[in-house]
Amino acid sequence: MEDGSKLDRLLALTLESAQRDQDIIEAVEAQTGAMTKWQEALLTLIEEMKALSAAVSAEPPPSDIAAELRRIADGLAQNTAVLADVAKLMAARK
């Protein structure tokens, strides 16, 4: 009778452990999905920033605001480079 009780307890512990493992797997999958969506949003933002920078460069505005827009475009280009590096690092972490 004692061996059956030990076996039942071992089985119960194994099932509890399996459930915890499943919970961890589900949490990691949810986090990975959220990270993937965040990466996609980041890549979309990078593309939009590139397009805006190209548009500003392609059609220069009147000279009184041209310098300010060039400064903004330069900042966007720098941000794009940083965001691209972040996206690469995140992709490498997968």
UniProtKB/TrEMBL annotation:
It comes from the Bacteria. This is Uncharacterized protein.
